[in-house]
Design a protein that fits this description.
The chain is an alpha+beta fold and 208 residues long. It is built from eight helices and six strands. Strands 1-4 form a two-stranded antiparallel ribbon. A two-stranded antiparallel sheet has the order 2-3. It has a two-stranded antiparallel sheet with strand order 5-6. The protein starts with 10 loop residues before the first helix and ends in a 13-residue tail after the last helix. It binds iron/sulfur cluster. The site of iron/sulfur cluster has 11 residues, from loops. InterPro entries: Puta_zinc/iron-chelating_dom (IPR005358). This is Putative zinc-or iron-chelating domain-containing protein. It comes from Desulfomicrobium apsheronum.
Length: 208
């Protein structure tokens, strides 16, 4: 049997929201930034083409998941439908699991980054740069992987990096009167959360 229409099973939305492309920029008038997450360069992300976690060669903006999970924040599980259907991004409009040509083509389109949504030289951009320079994902991943190889506990250098990042984010969130997760479009997820796929031990920073 050949499937010719979408069965609306919801599996694609359960697996995660779409990455945003240049073609989606206009949709940001309808999609609030609190519903977007930046996946920073070097972060481990699920690659549907290889069905595995891979470090991102470039940063991505993505519709965020519910809480710390990845099920798209706009997915309505009971109705198996999308709460922003009229404004759904390019990848969602292109995805048909019985014929993946269109989604592969969409995924190859230029993606949005923070440079496309935040004015360079603004106060927010300065904070983003400070965060990037002080709390590199690549450095944190390198430290975490070295520990994984030695099966050791979280080393003091990585612990210090994670704690300083939590402090940075907390101060910033208090200053602007927002919750940390509402700023994920600008600063990505906390380092400890980005490292969680490597070691469940990192969940202890949720309590810090
Ligand atoms: S935006 Fe809508 S269609 Fe796209 S993954 Fe989320 S719920 Fe599904």
């Amino acid at each position: 049997m050949t499937l010719s229409t979408c069965r609306r099973c919801g599996t694609c939305c359960e697996k995660g929201g779409p990455a945003l492309h240049e073609a989606d920029k206009g949709l940001l008038e309808h999609i609030p930034m609190k519903d977007v997450v930046c996946l920073r360069r070097g972060e481990l992300a699920f690659d549907p083409r290889t069905q595995s976690l891979q470090p991102l060669p470039l940063e991505l903006m993505k519709i965020r998941g519910k809480g710390a999970g990845w099920e798209c924040v706009y997915f309505l599980p009971r109705e198996k439908s999308c709460s922003v259907y009229g404004h759904r991004p390019l990848e969602c409009r292109s995805l048909f699991c019985a014929d993946t040509d269109a989604i592969h083509k969409a995924m190859a389109e230029p993606t949005l980054t923070r440079e496309d949504i935040v004015q360079k030289g603004s106060g927010l951009w300065t904070c983003i740069e400070e965060h990037e320079n002080s709390f590199s994902v690549t450095e944190a991943l390198g430290l975490a992987k070295a520990e994984q190889d030695c099966a050791g506990a979280i080393c003091s250098e990585l612990d210090d990096l994670i704690r300083r990042e939590i402090h940075f984010r907390r101060v910033l969130a208090e200053k602007v009167g927002a919750k940390d997760e509402d700023l994920w479009a600008y600063f990505g997820r906390p380092l400890w959360l980005a490292l969680l796929p490597l070691n469940p031990e990192f969940s202890r920073y949720d309590q810090v």
